[in-house]
Amino acid sequence: MESVLGRDQSSIRVSWKSVLSLGADVLPEYKLQAPRIHKWTILHYSPFKAVWDWVILLLVIYTAVFTPYSAAFLLNEVEEQRRRTCGYTCNPLNVVDLVVDVMFIVDILINFRTTYVNHNDEVVSHPGRIAQHYFKGWFLIDIVAAIPFDLLIFRSGSEETTTLIGLLKTARLLRLVRVARKLDRYSEYGAAVLFLLMCTFALIAHWLACIWYAIGNVERTSSARIGGMKIGWLDNLAEQIGKQYNDSDEASGPSIKDKYVTALYFTFSSLTSVGFGNVSPNTNPEKIFSICVMLIGSLMYASIFGNVSAIIQRLYSGTARYHTQMLRVKEFIRFHQIPGGLRQRLEEYFQHACIAAPLILCV
Known about the structure:
Layout: H1 2-20, H2 47-74, H3 77-86, H4 92-111, E1 116-117, E2 123-124, H5 127-136, H6 139-146, H7 149-152, H8 161-169, H9 175-183, H10 190-226, H11 233-241, H12 256-271, H13 284-336, H14 340-356, H15 358-361
Antiparallel strand pairs: 1-2
Helix pairs in contact: 2-4, 2-8, 2-10, 4-6, 10-12, 10-13, 13-14
Domain Ion transport: 51-317
Transmembrane segments: 54-75, 191-215, 288-312
Membrane topology: Multi-pass membrane protein
């Protein structure tokens, strides 16, 4: 009995480690002996690697949220002039971005020393084979995402520097491809799938809000330079809230908070097809972008709610299978006239067995 409990506890510990680990491969359970590894080599299933993967995941999430926001809302000519006079570290976000870049570079070095599992279910620990495997895999994406472009072209003095920094900073989003593949292992958990789908929906709405503001800002500045009519959504927002733009004052107009909340409101209402029209596209670029947002929203709406209905149906199907099997057990007890004590023990055993191994007994 103690040996059975010991095996159950060890299996629970292994399952929790497999859930918390973000690695794509796990050491097969039949290999009980520890693999021989070279010096300064990290096992891909070690606790350090699991914690490090979660740290990198949080940094990638930070990058996915703040990089488009910074490129669209915070990078402008005034900010660039202030950076040149004050220095690169005068803005705390620049320091955080620099730390993120350093962490990504360290992650590349760690990946060069991390073991992996080959096609024969063998743990490869040779540094040369690890480097060759990494070069053929995620090295290019990781190195592009880790390059500090804004620091390399700092003080370049070019007129297109601000736009170039904003475009190059979005290269960090390439790491989301790798994170998406690692999070795919949680697709078997219904609650995790729902949470990831909602986070994906919110993240895409955030990205589209940044693009929506960038389009409106370009339209407003171009119309102001040529003296045209100011009919963009930013000009309408400034008129609605009583914060008019003044071409001689770069700090005039709605605040960053007003512009971001309005842009996010527009993208959410467009993606969910419940737009009220109080924030509407007026220029041709804004209308074209709105059409693209509606197309993206229709696809996302169908995929997300299709997955939600499938998950709920799967949950209800499991409950229906349980009640069907329980009804059969009760019919078996009634037909064979099993005594009360044994009947209660049989029903309790079946309930416990269905909870412990639903795929074996409750099908």
